[in-house]
Amino acid sequence: MGDARTPVRRRRLVPWAVVGLWLAALVLVGPLAGKFGEVQQNRAVDYLPDSADSTQVARIQDELPGGESTDLVLVYHRDGGLSAADRETAAAQITEVESAYELTDTPRGVPSADGGTLMYPVSSTRPGQDEEARDAFVDGVREIADGTGGLSVEVGGPGALGTDMGKVFETIDGTLLLATLGVVTVLLVLIYRSPFLWLVPLTVAGVAAALAMAAGYGLHELLDVTVTGQSGGIMTVLVLGAGTDYALLLVSRYREELRRHEHPYDAMRAALRGCGPAILASSGTVAAGLLCLLAADLNSSSGMGPVGMIGVLAALVAMTTLLPAVLVLLGRRVFWPLVPAFGSAPKARRSLFAAMGTSAARRPAAVLVGGGLLLGALALGTLNLTGDLKQEDSFTDRPESITAMATLAEEYPERSSRPLTVMAPTDRADAVLAKTRTTEGVADATAVRDGEGWTEISVFATAAPETAGETRTIETLRDTLDDHGAHVGGLSAQQLDLADSESRDRKVIVPLVLAAVFVILMVLLRSLVAPLLLLAAVVAVWGAALGIGGLVFEPLLGFAGTDPGLGLLSFVFLVALGVDYGIFLLHRMREESLNGAEPEAAALTALRTTGGVIASAGVVLAATFAVLTTLPLVGLVELGFVIAVGVLLDTFLVRTYLVTTASVLLRRRLWWPGRLSRAPEPVPRDRRPEPV
Q1: Residue 364 to residues 258, 533, 604: CA-CA distances in angstroms?
Q2: Are 504 and 70 in contact (CB under 8 A)?
Q3: Which candidate among 82, 229, 303, 419 keeps its CA 20 to 30 Å from the CA of 180?
Q4: Which residues on adjacent β-strands are paired with residue 155?
Q5: According to DSSP H, which parts of 565-633 are helical?
Q6: DSSP characters for 33-46?
Q7: Considering the entire predicted model, what is its pTM?
Q8: CA gap 400, 163 in Å, rounded
Q9: pLDDT tens-digit series, residues 172-191
């Protein structure tokens, strides 16, 4: 078995050296990992492309005296109408706010038509771009604005919304990490049926997460890569999910090799030779798919590409170096109570996947057509997906800023409570202001401040925020004011630019991902037909998963919209991650064919030998993404749901039945135009490759 040829000294020193290098690396990167959360940018404008009109407005605001303004709206409301005492309370609190903070102008109350509500727009440039200063300002105003005796007081507006959103993102990293670790722990205990073994891959995954966070911080500092709370959370899920998948494949093969090799070191070498290429190819596919996001127009999406890639590569490096070293040092006893003894045979058990494969092979055409029709029927659910998600509907539990927005929309139907911002060259400000006031859909416009050659104009539309009417007003303003060199921004304009950029990115990124994955599969499988089969399968899974989302999001969960980025991000992750399992299955199928097996036998053997591991890996990956559904942001809930459902569909329907039956029907044509597509030549036994 080669055990005697491996020097004893190497068996002892190499694993310790690897562990020592990792400990040294952790000492170096540990402080950097702690800074990862500090570089996350969660302002709406941080997600937008540099070319967007609203991005230009935000940058000009930063250059004006005082920098970017923090705009709030204090909403005083009483059912049945405000009393004189309520108005006095409101005036006194506004005076206290004005004396406590440096405001850009004296707030003036705007009563509603029925007299039940009084709103005070409040603005300050003091916080600037400092998110901590902004949060302190918002929290301070909320402490002052307090209602009693049935008087409702809410603090809303873009500044308050930013603070509420920031508080959610502050908790995401820690909550997501702990929840994901808990889910993975439970699944690993059930899969390994050992009180100790689960600790090893879980600990290594934690080390990989620290490495990924340090590398993510370095990406931001060295290359100015945009890191958002969303991309940071996705990176955590990728490290733990993909890392655990790689660990499952490696440990499964290592357990098998321990029965053939006397020494764990030699068994691990054989295991790495056997499954290492498949793990490397699968991680390379995911990394390539994520890197395609660099072509995205949105800063958040283009930043997620390298950040996600770092997570996958950190998982790959840790699971192919640190995990093997630790397992070798712990020896066979880590598998207790099911210790694989040298020379023993595995316990014969009836394979569920062998039975499933045999049943599918009896009528492969019927199974393939039936499965395809099922996926197609599920994909019809996408017709039930609602329009783009509005800011006010983006939280699962509405914070104060959102309830204030709802109150304003109900009480002030004649005008928007959320201002648009027009930035005009100062020498044309008067003309821009005049044109703005006469633009259809504009209720009011006021020059707020100027400096650095620009004048800021606050504009209120007649339509409610993020409605078709307000969108028409924004587009009309941009068309009307473009000749004057003015820009139109603000929160609603940012949401409009976000949706437009997402639409453009889908048209660019989807073909790029398909092309990149196809090239990698073609090189790995040495075929044109097999890659096309896998890509068709994962695209069908993506459509079906989105369709199930359409049947669940609004009818069952009550979501009032779909995140604009859901289609693109779910496509990238489902294609890249779904192809992983196809690689494990077809790579094994190809090796069985090289060993002389007939096409049907090769397909069924590949399913029988890899089905259990792929199923375990799929369940773990789906569970890690499902953790996203526990977060308070609708966009992340939708993304986690679609990816988790897609991974499960891919694992238990597409890989098990559809890819297997398609392979049986295609026979050797599956490997066209490679040599496996032609009549096989006998392969000498001593030249046959070891199976994966």
Answers
A1: 36, 15, 12
A2: no
A3: 303
A4: 74
A5: 566-594, 599-626
A6: HTTGGGG---SHHH
A7: 0.81
A8: 10
A9: 666 777 777 788 888 888 88
